[in-house]
Design a protein that fits this description.
The chain has seven helices and ten strands. It is an alpha/beta fold.
Amino acid sequence: MGVSAKICGLSTEEAVAAASAAGAAYLGFVFYPASPRAVTPRRAARLCAGIPAGIGRVGLFVDADDRTVDAVLAAVPIDILQFHGDETPDRVAAAKLRFGRPVMKAVAIAGPEDVIDAARYEAVADRLLFDTKPPRRPDALPGGNGLAFDWALIADRSWRVPWMLSGGLTAELLPEAVRISGAAAVDVSSGVENRPGIKDLDKIRAFLAAARAIQSPMQAA
C-alpha cells in the first residue's frame, strides 16, 4: 500500500500534473508571500483546476489573518488549511469554525520539549505535521529549508489525530525516515526541487514511487 504523500509548494501546471499522475494524496499551495514557492489566489485557482478528484488540495498559511484566508478561499477550492506559523490552539479551533475546513497544524521539532508541546494541538487540529525547527537566521523560512530533525523523537508515540512527517525528506531518505518515525504520511517540498521554488518533475516521480514502495506502518494516515 505504501505511505501517503503530499507534494507541497507547487506553482506550475507541469508539476501539478506530474504529482497528480504519480499518485500524490495531497497537493500543497503556499500563500505566504515571503516564500519562493508562494502563489497568488488567482494562480492557485488555475493550478487547482486540473487536479483530479480524490486528491486533497492544501493551502499553506503562516500566521495569516482572517482576511487573507478569506481571500484565498473565495478564489481557490482548498480542502485543508495548513497553519505553518505560531498559531495557537485557540486560533486553530477558531479557524475551523470560521472557514469550515479541516486544519493541519505544523509543529516545529528540534528537541523532546517540542514533541511535548505538540500535544496542545491534539484536541483542536484535524492533523499534525512534524517539521524541522527553522535555523536561527534572518532569511530562514518556517518550512521548506531542506533540514531534517531526529526522527526518533516522534517514534513510538501515539497521537490522537493523524500526522505527517516533513523536513528534509528525499526519495533516498524516505524509507529510513518512515522506518524510524513510524510515519504513515509524509510531506515534501525542497526535496523535490532543483532550487527553492523550482520543482523537478523527475524528483517528484521518484519520491512518490519511493512512498508507494514502502510498507505502511499500522497507523492511521
